[in-house]
Amino acid sequence: MRVGILHNPLSGRNRRNPEFFQDIRSKNHALQWAEVHTPAEILEALKTFAQEQVDCVVVNGGDGTIQATMGALFRHQPFVSMPSLALLPSGTANLMAGDVGLGKFEPKTLEQLLAEAQSSHPQTVTETRPILRIRFPEKREPLHGMFFGAGAIYHGTQLGLQTKQSIGRLGEWGAGLILVKFLLALATGSRKGLNPITARVAAGEMSLVEDEYLVLLVTTLNRLFLGMKPFWGNNPGSLRYTSLRVPYRYLWRVLPAVLRGKPHALATISHGYRSENLSEIRLSFNSGFVLDGEVYTSSKPEEPLILDSPGELSFIRLKSE
Known about the structure:
The protein is α+β, with helices and mostly antiparallel strands. It contains nine helices and 15 strands. It has helices at 12-16, 22-27, 39-51, 63-76, 97-100, 107-117, 152-162, 172-188, 251-258, and strands at residues 3-7, 32-35, 56-61, 84-89, 124-135, 143-145, 147-151, 197-203, 209-219, 239-246, 273-278, 281-285, 289-291, 294-296, 305-318. α3 crosses α4 and α7 (152-162) crosses α8 (172-188). The two termini are 21 Å apart.
């Protein structure tokens, strides 16, 4: 296994620990190592890795760096065959690394991977996951990632960005605090911070149907922050889609089950709940959205975004001791 490392020194944890991995770099002179800040730099580094026959790309950066790496791999195809990714939780939220990450954010994790790369019997696990693609109605390059959210998820992410030195800096625990704030607002009947959106949604060949939604999420992850799994559909499809429509009923009776990915007799479409696995989803709404913790908007909100999957990537994890 030939390893190449994309290192973003501006990601949250790398910025707070600037010398964390420098000993590894200085002791491994032949290691393919690229310091990257922008999508263009990531693409150029990947082209170099491809020439050097790298087949495992370590992404030492946050969700934004991982997202840009996926985009470069699928849009520009610098490799003849897709490399595996090894994700270090080097950002703030680390949503993707929390699910398919290599291991803990510490030099020992990277040292172990480099040792395993030289072994004839590496102690690693490979997991393959579909990648989420968002195609825009305007002439704009698609985005690639693993988690899309709108409605309360978008507004909660904005709150995390606004409070980056307090709540936002706590990573998934900060996201948990924002969720508590969200649930308290629901419990007290307050609409403050909830901000339902009017959206038109369609799957496959179905026509767009307009409704008011509190939550819209689409993901290819198996777990979200704090181990939550708010998707319980069991039909075929690479995209996990979950929505909470307004008005909804029986939330407090349903919530403990659905956050663990368990179906509930009251979590029905007629009560406002929908969760299924789909191949393509079209969404049209006049609001921003989140992809892996990054905030975006469409310049043509009256026309639908198309969410699908362009293919899969393999993720390398170290075996637990």
